């Protein structure tokens, strides 16, 4: 889509020529404060606007701005930094393996990705069924092994209330920096540069995204100017 | 020299100035225990002769005096472990380990950076800089510092979260002073909350391709 086409029709010429290139991100040029417009978030909030005291699960770190945003709307917000928890878990596992005795073949028993995921989920995302009306998944799935992602998705599907929605972001190429996300307003998200918690694992193709969310009733995707695909998936 | 000895007696000046502020109580015997010091009201200011007694009031002693003040916070220092139920009306500072339940509804509870608490905490004001596994319920406010790590739900009318804080659990607002039941673990969402999404989704642009 040509972003220039979005200029106001009546305007003869742009009053201010853009000082920097518009892409690759809709994020601002300011490196300290990167924001992006999120149609997915706007839609996500609209979906929940009729639910009194909607329960939202943010799978990123806890931010004052995000918490305030939801609390002011009368929602109940839960946070569970899944990637942070995963990293701690994996570090713990590696530590355990290092300490474990070698097997007869000379190798310690390393868990497969799916076994690791199962073990991880014994303690992570432990919420009762149908707990949440909305889940903010951000770009988490880009950072997990496919086997882990699919198990996490199964768990998310379970804890999501029927009719509930998951908002997820998918990069079209490996991002230059690792970011966490916090909500500024109904349509704006701030990207906060953070120490890398995990290496970007994969770039999802459309088909793969739909496969990942295969259990969900419907999906809607938006592609931003920064080529980040936002997906909204309804249970 | 001579004069000085004589002067000491008649001159009215010194008597009126400092009526021999009867000795600083401790200097005679350097006491290791700070408790009696705390009981004595602070000596009159500017009594230079008290200078030799200074060692008795060395820094650590003064510190102890403060902790004995009943209006100050009680504290659990690093290295201390406590298990059970804590209740009362004093403010509490925990930099050690605590397990059980902490119920100080009119006080401030602070978990220091070294503090590790496995307990539900109920207080007027809760400040976390350490690690807590348990639900937090505050009548006024909860503050999660940048080094805090909380696993449990937070129930409060006001919350402050510093960047870097870690929270695994839900945040729920109460009105100031409102006493809701104890903060509890996640409960299922109310049944049959139907979204307009349900209807809207069927018309959504790109339903499953």
Which descriptors would you attach to this protein?
heterodimer, A: 235 residues, 6-stranded mixed beta sheet, 6 helices, B: 209 residues, alpha/beta, 5 helices, 11 strands, 17% helix, disordered N terminus
Q: In percent, how helical is the residue content of chain B?
A: 10-25%
Large-scale geometry of chain B = globular
Q: Greatest contact pair?
A: A-B, 44 and 37 residues
H and E order of chain B:
HHHHEEEEEEEEEEEH
CATH fold name of chain A: Rossmann fold
Account of the protein in words:
The complex is a heterodimer of chains A (235) and B (209). By secondary structure, chain A is α/β, with parallel strands linked by helices. Chain A has one domain (24-234): 3-Layer(aba) Sandwich (Rossmann fold), CATH 3.40.50.150. Chain A contains six helices and nine strands; from the N terminus they run βαβαβααβαβββαββ. In chain A, the strands form two sheets. In chain A, strands 3-2-4-5-9-8 form a six-stranded mixed sheet. In chain A, helix 2 (64-72) links the parallel strand 2 (55-58) and strand 3 (76-79). With 209 residues, chain B is of the alpha/beta class. Chain B has a domain at 74-173. Residues 1-69 and 182-209 of chain B have low confidence and may be disordered. Chain B starts with a helix and ends in a 7-residue tail after the last helix. Chains A and B meet through helix 2, strand 3, strand 5 and strand 8 of A and strand 10, strand 11 and helix 5 of B.
């Amino acid at each position: 889509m040509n972003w220039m086409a979005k200029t106001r029709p009546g305007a003869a010429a742009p009053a201010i020529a853009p000082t920097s290139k518009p892409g690759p991100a809709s994020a601002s040029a300011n490196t300290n404060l990167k924001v992006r417009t999120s149609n997915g978030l706007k839609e996500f909030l609209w979906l929940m606007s009729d639910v009194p005291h909607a329960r939202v699960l943010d799978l990123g770190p806890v931010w004052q701005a995000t918490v305030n945003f939801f609390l002011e709307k009368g929602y109940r917000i839960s946070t569970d930094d899944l990637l942070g928890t995963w990293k701690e878990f994996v570090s713990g596992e590696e530590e355990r393996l290092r300490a474990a005795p070698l097997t007869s073949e000379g190798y310690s028993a390393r868990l497969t990705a799916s076994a690791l995921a199962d073990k991880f989920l014994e303690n992570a995302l432990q919420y009762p069924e149908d707990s949440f009306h909305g889940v903010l998944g951000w770009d988490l799935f880009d950072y997990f092994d496919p086997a882990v992602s699919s198990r996490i998705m199964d768990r998310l599907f379970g804890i999501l209330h029927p009719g509930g929605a998951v908002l997820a972001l998918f990069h079209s190429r490996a991002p230059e920096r690792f970011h966490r996300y916090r909500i500024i307003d109904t349509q704006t998200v701030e990207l906060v540069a953070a120490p890398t918690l995990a290496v970007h694992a994969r770039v999802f193709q459309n088909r793969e995204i739909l496969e990942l969310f295969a259990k969900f009733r419907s999906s809607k995707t938006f592609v931003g100017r920064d080529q980040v695909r936002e997906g909204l998936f309804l249970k | 020299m001579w004069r000085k000895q004589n002067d000491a007696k008649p001159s009215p000046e010194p008597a009126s100035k400092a009526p021999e502020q009867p000795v600083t109580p401790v200097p005679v015997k350097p006491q290791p225990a700070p408790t009696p010091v705390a009981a004595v009201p602070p000596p009159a200011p500017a009594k230079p002769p008290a200078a030799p007694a200074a060692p008795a009031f060395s820094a650590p002693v003064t510190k102890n005096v403060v902790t004995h003040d009943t209006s100050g916070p009680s504290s659990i220092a690093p290295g201390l472990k406590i298990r059970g139920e804590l209740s009362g009306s004093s403010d509490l500072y925990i930099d050690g380990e605590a397990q059980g339940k902490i119920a100080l509804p009119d006080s401030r509870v602070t978990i220091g950076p070294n503090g590790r608490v496995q307990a539900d905490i109920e207080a007027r004001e809760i400040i976390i800089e350490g690690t807590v596994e348990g639900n937090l319920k505050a009548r006024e406010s909860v503050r999660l510092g940048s080094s805090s790590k909380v696993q449990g739900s937070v129930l409060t009318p006001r919350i402050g979260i510093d960047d870097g804080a870690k929270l695994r659990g839900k945040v729920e607002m109460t009105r100031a002073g409102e006493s809701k039941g104890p903060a509890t673990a996640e409960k299922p969402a109310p049944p049959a909350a139907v979204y307009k999404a349900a209807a809207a989704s069927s018309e959504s642009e790109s339903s499953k391709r």
